[in-house]
Amino acid sequence: EPEVTQTPSHQVTQMGQEVILRCVPISNHLYFYWYRQILGQKVEFLVSFYNNEISEKSEIFDDQFSVERPDGSNFTLKIRSTKLEDSAMYFCGSGEYEQYFGPGTRLTVT
Amino acid sequence: DQQVKQNSPSLSVQEGRISILNCDYTNSMFDYFLWYKKYPAEGPTFLISISSIKDKNEDGRFTVFLNKSAKHLSLHIVPSQPGDSAVYFCAASEVLLGVNSGGSNYKLTFGKGTLLTVNP
Hints:
Shape of chain A: globular
Low-confidence stretches of chain A: none
Number of helices of chain B: 0
Largest sheet of chain A: 7 strands, mixed
Number of strands of chain B: 13
Helix content of chain A: under 10%
Radius of gyration of chain A: 13 Å
Radius of gyration of chain B: 15 Å
Mean pLDDT of chain A: 95
Distance between the termini of chain A: 37 Å
Number of helices of chain A: 0
Strand content of chain A: over 45%
Largest interface: A-B, 28 and 29 residues
Order of helices and strands of chain B: EEEEEEEEEEEEE
Strand content of chain B: over 45%
Structural class of chain B: mainly beta
Mean pLDDT of chain B: 94
Oligomer: heterodimer
């Protein structure tokens, strides 16, 4: 069964550093997403991506965030200058009405 | 702004009995609803969904009921099994078709989740 994969599973970085989280969505899906879950809080929508452009983004997704599909399979989330409050689980998803998620990347900003 | 609410943080049931997980929403524009199951250190796993034009959808042991007038949905698991023990998230979307370069918006809004424990 096709699945979404994410790397790394855990990333530790210092405040102010750039991080790139990677995802391989399900191959025949056209819509891709990033969500995050801060410890003890809800899963929150960050951004959706279709046809090589952002189709919707949340207030959280400010200028420090960017997404890219650098090739035919990978989908990345970059945080330019990480803050302590960026520490969270980041989930990549793909699909349309029904979205399928990867196992997540735990980002710890120290 | 809690547009999707799961008011029970936890639920405990005996193996073989029915588990009923509840979810309320406030945004009347939501037209597609989903349930996800999540184990620790894993991503949410899609379980079952329902469109706003239906009031019931069934898939094996899982049934989702939608009451649009009450803005309420529920997930029934019958019979419950110990392997069902996990956090269950309700999610909703207001699907906007063709809003961007022919693309659409399927953004999900999640509830806080309910921890289901099924005791052997």
